[in-house]
Every structure is written in structure tokens, then in C-alpha cells.
Specification:
heterodimer, A: 226 residues, mainly alpha, B: 190 residues, Rna Polymerase Sigma Factor, Chain: A, 10 helices, 0% strand, elongated, binds zinc ion
Amino acid sequence: MNCQECEEIISDYVDGALEPGAQTKIEHHLANCEACRAVRDDLLQIVHFSKQLPLHIPTSDLWSRIQTEIEAEQPKTWWARSKARLQNLYGRDFKFSIPQFAAIAAACIIVAAIGVVVWQKNNSQVPQFANAAPADNQLQTKLANDPSFQEFEQTIKQLKESVEQRKDTWGPELRLSFERNMTSIDQSLNDCRQLLSRNPNDETCKELLKNAYSEKVRVLQGFANF
Amino acid sequence: MMPATVERSEPVSDLDLVRAAAAGDAAAFEQLYHLHNRRVYSLCLRMLSSGTQAEDMTQEVFLQVFRKIGSFRGDSAFTTWLHRLTVNQVLMHFRKRGVKLEHTSEEGDFTNVVETPLQSTRRISMVDRLDLDKAIGELPPGYRTVFILHDVEGYEHEEISGLLKVSVGTSKSQLHKARMRLRDLLKSKH
Ligand SMILES: [Zn+2]
């Protein structure tokens, strides 16, 4: 083995990655070549100290920057309100995941939340949720009597009209996105209505329905501006 | 901020914190940040060689952690998961910027520099960790990335090959060239 051949495999040697045959050969060369021994010793040092490099510290305001971003990403008020209420209702072990919320588009957020709540309520041993659900027409009356929901329906109707006007100018991707958003929001609206129909006096369910409505308005407003 | 002390006085594991954070516990997420931000930032700083970019990247990494923490399964250590996420973010950044990692021939072949017999047997004196850190920053991006992944972060060549979409042979030769270049840089400092 000459020095060039030695150098070609010396990193593998330092990493202990050579076949026994090659290892014997390089060790023989190293025993007789000071220059290559110098390379080996230096590489050993570099490899060794690379594992103990000093840590660097970011500036102290980085955390507050991150926090600001996180807060901007999640619909905070609705999130904070719902979480507090759900935890009051179901206890501390109620799992309501922020990342789950932040990870997906706002529309899906509601769906996920409703999913969790519906599941929780369907499986709940709490007597108040074991009650039979009132008939659907009762709920309709209830909704109609609630001015805020009527207002939502009114706003949504208007927004849908302006969206229909804009739609002709959209590309296929935007249309698809709109359909997807509407499907998931309508799904969550439905879930909310059913949830409320089973628990007509539950404030959290009302709150969730209200949020689903707000979300639909928000998304429609977004699309109406495209 | 002394994580070692904190860890000893509070028997809260990363996994506990991750679970709490995934369940919406903001304080747990903040604690994860304080325990790990320096490792993430240091890794970003080494790979990017710019304090500002490293901070932006660290921010992006922790936002990703926040968004994805629910998907952390706990079958690897949280630190491993976090570092992978960091490496992926940095590599994505390189790709977006068109930083070439696989092709460094134009950077010259440093291993063929002819040394006089006296120079060749001269060893670098005890490596100063600060000098080494600084010298890593002077490596061309291709060498630097492979070196950091392998020698600093402990990735295997097979993993690096997958991450950088290069052959194992390329990863090995880049690493070797990086080490030899570092040796030159460290020698010239003394
Ligand atoms: Zn030799």
C-alpha cells in the first residue's frame, strides 16, 4: 500500500469501517509511514472533538417570536374558550390537541374538534348526555328562535351569492379548494347540529355550533374576495 | 437555563412534556423549547453559517414541532425526532435556494495538495473546539453538510445518502475531503 491508497481509506479506518483484510494492510502502512500516521492522528482528533462542539445560544427574543407565530396560527379566542369549557365539563384528562388544530386548515379544525367532542359525548358515561335526543324539528325551532344563528344563515346566504358571482373567474384548483372547504364545514355544521340536538341545553354545544357558523362565514368571506 | 439541573430536580421526561404539549399544555411546549433550542440553533448555525438565518430556521423548526407534535409516536427519542426534523428543514431550505450539496468538484480537490515532508508529518496541535467550530463554518456547503451530519450529528452514510440523494460512496468521499480540509484549516491556524 502506498500513501495515496492509504489516504483513500483512512477515513473509513478512523471510523472502524474497514474489512479485516484492508485494516491489516493500512495498519502495516501506518506502522511504517509517519506522514500517514500524522493524518490518522489529526482525523481522530477532528472526529473526537466534533462530538463535543460548544452549543450556541439564540437571542433571547426568539421564544417570544415563536410564541407570537403560534398564537397567530390558531384561532385563539375560540380555542381558549372551548378548551376551558370542555375541560370543565369533562375534567382535566380531556384531550384537546393544539397541534392537531394548528396543523390543519382552519376549516378542518372545526371538524376535528367536533369529531373529538362527538366521540366524547357518544361515549360519555355522564348521565346528562345519555338522555334521548329531541326530535330534529325541535332543534330547527330552537335555531330559528336564536337570533344569532338566523343572522349567520342570512350572512351565509349573501356571501354564497357573491361567491357564485366570483366563481366563474376561478381556476380548477381554487374551485376544488372551495368545494373541499365547504364540504368539511358543512359536515362540521351538521355534526354540531346533531350534537346540540342531543344536548339542547349544553352551552358548549351551542358554542361549537356558533364557531362552525363563524368559520363558514370566515371561509366564505375569504373566497368571496378571490 | 441549566437543563442538567432542571432535569435532575424535575423528573419530567421529554416524552411527558411532548404528551402534555400535544394535549394543549402551552407551558410544556415552552419547556421543550427551553430544553432543546440550543441544540437546534447550534445545528442550524453550523449548517447555515449565518446567525440570522439560523434563528429563522430555529423558529421554523419549533413551529413545525408545534404543528407535528401530535404525530410524534415516541418510538424514537424526542431529540432524534427533533434533529431529523431540523435537518430536513435545513435541507429543504438548501433545495429551495438551489444550494448544490452533491456537486463540489468546482471547489477543488484539497487532498491532492502537495506537502513537503516536514509539513506532512506535522500534526495539528490539540484541537481547540472553538477553532474546529469556526473551521467547519469555512467548509464549502457540500462538505460541511456531510461532515455535520456524520461527525457532529452521528448519522450513518446510508442515512446521509438517502437525505442528500447521493450515493454512499459520494457521502464517504465528501466526508473524507471535509475532514482533510478541516485538517488544513486547523493547521494553518497554528
Ligand atoms: Zn503513507
